[in-house]
Amino acid sequence: MKLAEVVPWGRSRREYERMFGLTATDLTKRILGVGDGPASFNAEMALAGHNVTSIDPIYAFSASELRERIGATHQTIAEQLKCNVNQYVWTDFQNAEAVIYTRMEAMSLFLSDYEQGLQQERYIPISLPDLPFPDSSYDLVLCSHLLFLYSEQLSEAFHLTSIKELVRVANDVRIFPLVTLDGHVSPHLNSVLEYCKLNHIQADIIPVDYQFQKGAYQMLRLLRKSL
After folding, report:
1. Which domains does the chain have, with CATH numbers?
2. Which of 129, 185, 196, 221 can pair with 162 through a Cys bridge, CB separation 3.0 to 4.6 Å?
3. What is the pTM of this model?
4. What parts of the chain have a pLDDT lower than 50?
């Protein structure tokens, strides 16, 4: 991965709680965040004494490199938001400036925690579809804005292999959102659901109390069935 290809975009703990329907009990579990990027979820959870490991290939870069890239891209993102206001639901945010402020605040929290988190192996530079963790290493996997969202870039085979890995490392897997970048339901969703049906994985599409991108208001929850 080249840093010039990365557009850092970080979400907060509160957004994670809403995207994935997290309960107080969920927050006490061993959590693996997949594709977390510069989200502040891990940092905020660490401050609260909780156990989160985040994986993302961008963690191969230093804090200064990521800080510079965030500074170089956030205005471009702001302009894109302003040009595409009809693609979003403006209930949590008043305007594009409010989105940028919230995202920059989350990424600032991430950066303040990043170096310590690397040393503690809470941020690990790896990516799907192959994970170096033993079976059932975690209680809960949260995959935010990666699978399904990038269906054009990530193939059906990639999705199926990734689902197999995620369910291997945790019994409870939650993926959000289920739509692509253009707001349509992912063309890979039905294949994933069929794969789950054939492989003893309970798959439920669940509405959540979160929506910014239009159409993105559901998560997929996967539970490994006992044979």
Report:
1. 3-224 (3.40.50.150)
2. 129
3. 0.95
4. none
